[in-house]
Write a structure and sequence with these properties.
The chain has 287 residues and is of the alpha/beta class. The protein has 14 helices and five strands. This is Thioredoxin.
Length: 287
């Protein structure tokens, strides 16, 4: 049995209602199979996957021919697996054998309209894979489609900030209601702006790196270099520098190293693997 709304098991009791009458509402792909049929076991998972992916463009109806021999005989099934596509009460097309996924898609696309992928879902998959540049156009499209969705706006702002466009990110955040500004993504954007402002009063990156090489205990140079690294996307070395400050010089700047480290956590987001790693290391350093 299945709990999916896109897949159903067929018997003589529901063949009329679910296949013939059901095909008047949406195409029904009927898969005739049996437990002993190895090609059937290869084909069925692919059909189930496509039924879920097409999200209602068709319904998969599974017929166990060992248990439902009358249905198989009525349809005239001669070999397994046999798959027929029923629409408007009529057989529209059919095939036999275990087709590969690409051929199954081509078969379906001749007769049913595949649903368009949700740009927000696509964007979040790209963000999870680290492709922020690829995600931004999709997030912009999603925001155009859902102008009142604060989650979409925050996702877009955070991606823009991480790809070096803080002004655009801040403009989006400025349009949000006050309650949305407590979101960690908003805190991250504010942290990015604060880091940029701090750098305005510091020597250049190369000068700070030279100072630190000459004197590893130069906490000010180490902290400033970490800020440059964060804004350049070099997050792990920046976190190492800030953790060093927490461990060796917490008195500097009234525990400023720890404060900056927490701001970087906000900047990267709670789900970032580096945040989980360095939050644990920070806890160990403090306690």
């Amino acid at each position: 049995m299945t709990t999916s709304p896109h897949i159903i098991d067929i018997t003589m009791d529901n063949f009329q209602s679910e296949v013939l009458e059901g095909s008047m509402q949406q195409p029904v792909l009927v898969d005739f199979w049996a437990e002993w049929c190895q090609p059937c076991k290869t084909l069925m998972p692919l059909l189930e996957k496509l039924a879920e992916e097409y999200r209602g463009a068709f319904r998969l109806a599974r017929v166990n021919c060992d248990e439902q021999q009358a249905i198989a005989a009525q349809v005239g099934v001669r070999s397994l697996p046999t798959v027929i596509l029923v629409s408007q009460g009529q057989v529209l097309d059919q095939f036999t054998g275990a087709l590969p996924e690409g051929e199954l898609r081509r078969f379906l696309d001749q007769h049913v309209q595949a649903p368009q992928a949700d740009p927000l879902e696509q964007a979040r998959e790209l963000v999870a894979a680290g492709d922020l540049q690829g995600a931004i156009p999709l997030l912009e499209q999603a925001r155009s489609d859902r102008p009142d969705d604060q989650e979409v706006a925050l996702d877009l702002a955070h991606a823009l900030m991480q790809t070096g466009e803080p002004e655009k990110a801040e403009a989006i955040v400025a349009e949000l209601p006050d309650d949305a500004r407590h979101d960690p993504r908003c805190k991250g954007i504010k942290a990015h702006r604060a880091f940029s402002e701090q750098l305005a009063d510091l020597p250049g990156r190369d000068a700070l790196a030279a100072r630190l090489e000459q004197d590893p205990a130069d906490t000010e140079a180490r902290h400033g270099l970490a800020l440059y690294q964060v804004l350049a996307g070099e997050n792990e070395p920046a976190l190492e520098h800030l953790l060093w400050i927490v461990r060796h010089d917490r008195q500097w700047g009234d525990d400023r190293g720890r404060d900056t480290l927490l701001r970087v956590f906000d900047l990267l987001g709670a789900e970032d693997p580096l945040v989980r790693q360095y939050r644990s290391r920070l806890f160990q350093s403090l306690y």
